[in-house]
Design goal:
The longest helix has 33 residues, at 39-71. The protein has 2 helices and no strands. The protein is rod-shaped, with a radius of gyration of 17 Å. It has one domain. By secondary structure, the protein is mainly α. Helix 1 packs antiparallel against helix 2.
Length: 75
């Protein structure tokens, strides 16, 4: 069983975007109201952005996993 490490761009991107999405979602709890931006608008914006980032991250992770299985280097 020779497991050769290869560069997996989708896996790396998936981890990055998933973590970034989680950070944005956690930051939702720290949104404060300003004169220009009401609190509700900031919260909704963070939830939408965090969900999109998390979705892109998970999709990239799944794509990377599928590509790895096609190459035969998966588990």
């Amino acid at each position: 069983m020779d497991h050769k490490k290869t560069f997996e761009p989708f896996t790396i991107l998936g981890v990055f975007w998933s973590l970034f999405g989680l950070i944005v979602l956690v930051a939702t709890f720290f949104v404060r109201e300003t004169q220009q931006v009401p609190a509700l608008r900031g919260i909704v914006t963070n939830i939408i952005a965090g969900s999109l980032l998390l979705g892109v991250g998970i999709a990239s992770l799944l794509k990377g996993r599928a590509d790895r299985r096609k190459k035969g280097t998966g588990h």
